[in-house]
Write a structure and sequence with these properties.
Shape: flat
CATH class: Mainly Alpha
Structural class: mainly alpha
Number of strands: 3
């Protein structure tokens, strides 16, 4: 995952504390994503010729559940599968399956963004 820390210590203890808290939050979020993808892989994986992996049919059934209406198109499922299964072996292993949340930009955080000023006072114009 591409993670960039823009906060640098400037000698102020409060900045160092914020930076430390940010690092802890990012680390916990990454660990949560890894645990969730491992659980999902264990539930969806089946034994194939290449070993344990998620097949294309299983992935095609899981994708609409994860993304809702966005994944209704069979072309979208096919395109995502081609990216994941670059070797064209018919199944995706644990390591490649762990890239799915980043590839599809699935939110894995419990935090919801707070509405900004325009959204709060002008919801019809903003949405």
């Amino acid at each position: 995952m591409c993670i960039h820390f823009l906060l640098r210590p400037r000698g102020n203890p409060s900045n160092n504390l914020c930076r430390c808290n940010l690092k802890n939050e990012v680390r916990e979020s990454l660990e949560r994503v890894a645990v969730l993808t491992d659980k999902c892989f264990e539930e969806a994986a089946s034994s194939t010729d290449a070993g344990l992996g998620v097949t294309k049919d299983t992935f095609a059934r899981l994708l609409p559940m994860a993304l809702g209406r966005r994944a209704a198109s069979p072309n979208y499922v096919e395109a995502v599968w081609l990216v994941l299964d670059a070797e064209n072996c018919g199944a995706v292993g644990r390591q490649r399956f762990a890239e799915v949340p980043e590839l599809l930009k699935i939110p894995c955080s419990d935090e919801t963004p707070s509405p900004n000023l325009f959204e709060r006072y002008f919801p019809k114009l903003y949405k």
